[in-house]
Amino acid sequence: MAEVCTRDATLRYVPLGKRANGFVFNDGIALWRETIESFDAFTVDVRWIRLDQLGNAYCEVFTGGRQAKDAFGVENRGRDVWLEQLYILHASWDGRIDRLTAYWDQAEFYRQLGKATIEDPLF
After folding, report:
1. Which side of the chain, N or C, has fewer Cβ within a 10 Å radius?
2. pTM for this entry
3. For residues 61 and 45, is the Cβ–Cβ distance under 8 A?
């Protein structure tokens, strides 16, 4: 995913707070790696994409997999997680992504994985 981004592309995963408010090449790659390594057969299903005239793409995706190790403050219980997410991508003048913002229901993520509290050390 980073290959389609500019070198200074920003990343903002709103539900993760400060931990995921930075740059694709500093913060995003680490988060993506942790996700892929922590969930077996991690799947991303793009449901739809809409474009506007300001260089934005709005994408609804359905992601998930079975937790295979502790991650994101959640102890591994081998449970499946499936979430709808909304991504807003902005393209620079050369067509590469220079800003990526994502939203999802973090409480639902915790519920599916069996985390009893929403207090989150990531903030």
Report:
1. C
2. 0.86
3. yes
pLDDT for 67-88, tens place per residue? 999 988 899 999 999 999 999 9
Long-range Cβ pairs for the range 26-34 (8 Å, 24+): 28/1, 28/2, 28/100, 29/2, 32/1, 32/2, 34/71, 34/72
Percent of the chain with pLDDT over 70: 95
Q: Given the DSSP bridges, would you call strands 39-51 and 56-67 parallel, antiparallel or unpaired? A: antiparallel
Task: Give the strands of the sheet with 39-51, arranged side by side.
Answer: 21-23, 5-13, 97-103, 80-91, 56-67, 39-51
d(CA 73, CA 58): 29
Residues paired with 102 in a beta bridge: 13, 87
Is residue 118 within 8 A of residue 29, CB to CB? The reply is no
Instruction: Return the sign of the alpha-carbon dihedral for residues 12, 17, 21, 26.
Output: negative
Alpha-carbon distance of 106 to 87, in angstroms, equals: 15
Nearest alpha-carbon partner for 37 in 72, 79, 84, 87: 72
Task: Report which of 69, 91, 86 is spatially closest to residue 78, judged by C-alpha positions.
Answer: 69
